[in-house]
Amino acid sequence: MSGKLASDYPSWKKLQQLYDAEHSKIVLKDLFAQDPQRFSKFSREYNSTSGPDVTMLVDLSKNLITEPVLETLLELAREAKVEEYRDKMFAGEHINTSEDRAVLHVALRNFNDFKIAESGADEVSAVLDHMKEFTEAVRSGAWKGYTGKTINTIVNIGIGGSDLGPVMVTEALKPYAKRDLAAHFVSNIDGTHIAETLRLCDPETTLFIIASKTFTTQETITNAETARGWFLASAKDKAHVAKHFVALSTNTKAVTGFGIHESNMFQFWDWVGGRYSLWSAIGLSIALVIGYENFEQLLKGAHGMDKHFKETPLEDNLPVLMAVIGLWYNDFYGSQTLALLPYDQYLHKFADYFQQGDMESNGKFVTKNGQRVNYQTGPIIWGASGTNGQHSFYQLVHQGTKLIPTDFIAPTTSHNPIEHSKHHRILLSNFFAQPEALAFGKTEEEVKRELGPNASEALVKSKVFQKRKVSRHPRAYSPLFVSVGALIALYEHKIFVQGVIWGINSFDQMGVELGKVLAKNILAQLEKPEDVKGHDSSTTGLIHYYQKNRKE
Ligand SMILES: O=P(O)(O)OC[C@H]1O[C@H](O)[C@H](O)[C@@H](O)[C@@H]1O
After folding, report:
1. Of all helices (H) and strands (E), which one includes residue 180?
2. Were both Cys, which of 138, 201, 205, 268 would link to 280 (CB 3.0–4.6 Å)?
3. Among 240, 259, 294, which residue terminates a domain?
4. How far is the CA of 431 from the centre of ligand 1 (A)?
5. pTM of the predicted model, to two decimals?
6. Smallest CA separation from ligand 1 atom 11, residue
7. ipTM for the whole complex
């Protein structure tokens, strides 16, 4: 990010030469055969050095990398000044240049360890205290609804970063959930979402959490107004709103304007990006579901990974290693996507969450200096939990024409060791087998040997697996809540490192603005056909069709 394009660095050119010379010859089976130490050379164990114990093994050996490739990738990270920019982030410098903001999600889980000068960083513990007090009041039943009943349902209304993190983490940490407190999440402006949720709620026992950094997001404010109207239809008196609505936001004026008292507002700061905000007040629904103590453990798990990222040499730095290997596929092998494949049902929203985390951060085509890049930036993130994905899209991953980097993730211990852990052993046998199949494939000779001499050539060919598919496995160990914190932080920092190397600003999201502006304009024209002006013929035709065919 030193004003250069990534492709200007000498190491980038060296990587291109390495790719040109080796990519058509590289076969994982041969690499493993040539080097019995390959697994230990290319895997790293993570043991947290602060807070609760988290251990994790990240096996990078089944990637299409050699020692010279990895060395050169790390040279690239050095030339791009990854360490310098990492230190700037932790110091609170305004590395989000387009918005002139610091990027300090690490301050939200810091517990006074790193010194951070930015204003607001010293207020974090007061907000955590507020969250703790409130969480305990609701969970203990001390907080009552307007008719004196205990709260038994919470509804988080938010979208994007104010929804996906709480959704993903409350699912991930379900084993710790208070089972008699139902949690719902409403994000979509489609009235179906709020309507179906309200059907499950009782106004006397429901708490609405309006989560919006800006408190101006159309979906969230509209859904919140609908929820307030629904509530007041029963409660009648506006004074009761205070018992049933709280806000998570940076915008006090808009929150109080909505009718939520400042004492029921949980603050955060403009240096918390929406997609990095689950650690802030935005995590209130998480704390309500799993309890404040467990929420704090989640933060501490992430802090351990922050410390690792900040203090570990690049050669052993997990987010850096995952970032540069991802870049190797993205920019040299031409891979377009990264599949996140957690073999853990509790992590079934992991890919959805990092779709925003990664794609909104690194989906940019100009550098911080406004230069157009001449290489690929952020990958398309997708995935599903194993083994469901195996019965759906793995065929293409194994035998399709695309090279798809895959991150396999699994916990060593199950929260549900039912049937003497039979399920977990079957799950993990798939977790081990799929990357093995991807890495080593099956040759034509092997297929022929299996099928015998009478098999047709077409059948033989259809059963061949190429030997150059790739995978890497971060494996999180239990206990889950701290591991989940560390796992999320691992990916957050991976995204950061890639953004630095590509020279882009990973912390703004200018690309989502245009659609919002156009929708606002169209909304004002939807009533009458003669109002529909200023569009291309396709947009005009679509709106006219809707106007003609709608049934109110
Ligand atoms: O929290 P809010 O201000 O309501 O924003 C919610 C979301 O809005 C937009 O879609 C932004 O691109 C996201 O980054 C953000 O998470």
Report:
1. none
2. 268
3. 294
4. 34
5. 0.95
6. 160
7. 0.97
